[in-house]
Amino acid sequence: MGVKIGIFFIKLIGYLPFWFLFILSDGFYYLIKLSGYRKKVVLENLRNSFPEKSEQELKQISNKFFRHLADMFFETFKIYRMSEEELHKRIRFKNTELIDRYYNEGKDVIAMLGHYGNWEWMPSMNLSIKSQGCQVYQPLRSKEYDKYMLEIRSKWGTLNFTMKASYRSMHKLRMENKRFLIGMISDQSPRKNKIQHYVNFLNQDTPVHTGAEKMAVKTNSPVVFFRLEKVKRGYYDITIESLFENPTETKDFEITNTFNRHLEDLIKERPELWLWSHKRWKHKRNEAPKQA
Q1: Cα–Cα distance measured from residue 206 to residue 283, given in angstroms and rounded to the nearest whole number
Q2: Contact by Cβ (8 Å): 103, 131
Q3: Per-residue pLDDT reduced to its tens digit, 147-171
Q4: How many CB atoms sit inside 10 A of residue 105's CB?
Q5: What does the alpha-carbon distance between residue 106 and residue 291 come to, in Å, rounded to a whole number?
């Protein structure tokens, strides 16, 4: 019952105008600060990622991150009641011509991105391209919240697949001769028994997911990167960049390594927009199972 009441109030928040949402966000930011939510995790991640920065600089980044995180929560709640007209004003996709070219050539597309900016607004890209927009997601533990988030993520006609069902779902779309773009957030920490590759990412030995690369090579689908810029509160620009036109011609882990370099460069430009509260480096190389 408590979860249902929580979802009810979250849905009500979606009816509020953005100016009022950001007032609530400011208040929520101070609650986060007072609670000390993941403060130690964020600062530890920042210290390890930017050893050249002073403690004062790191605390400033931390504060900006928590402000952005508060904004992102309320921006996500707003999706429930956003019109297409308002959405197009607040999020602009650049270079969609690239995706439409692949569509005209009969090619599907793998889009790689990280927990940067507001990734929950990304599914709205389905309104701006010819291909069917899809994304891979991790189900939430709460079935009620998971159902609510799927409502949000499907609002603009985007299809949502679990990782386990992604290959099967993609195959079904191919059999129906439907061209698609599938977005994959690829900066989570893999399960320890699933680690197959490490990269030097933000000054640290980092285990990475390789699922997007495997999918791209298996289907020889072009790979693109979403370069996001937060223009101001509630406004984003996303530029679509080509990474690989023919994945079958790449070397092992080349796609994964390239994506992580692009994401790292993006994070260094505006570090406060990345999800620093995530325990990204909880698995060390010597703790991982031996690679085959």
Answers
A1: 8
A2: yes
A3: 989 999 999 999 999 888 888 898 8
A4: 9
A5: 36
pTM, rounded to two decimals: 0.92
**Does residue 22 register a pLDDT over 80?**
yes
190-224 residue pLDDT tens: 888 889 999 999 999 999 999 999 999 999 999 99
CB-CB contact of 57 with 271 (8 Å): no
Residue with tokens 């070397």: 251
**What is the Cα 134 distance to its own chain's centre?**
13
Torsion sign across C-alpha atoms 29, 32, 36, 42: negative
What are φ and ψ of residue 157, in 5° steps?
90, 5
Output the CA–CA distances (angstroms, integers) from residue 205 to 38, 51, 189, 256, 282, in the order listed: 22, 14, 12, 14, 11
62: left (phi over 0), alpha (psi -120 to 50) or beta: alpha
Contact (Cβ atoms closer than 8 angstroms) between residue 92 and residue 142: no
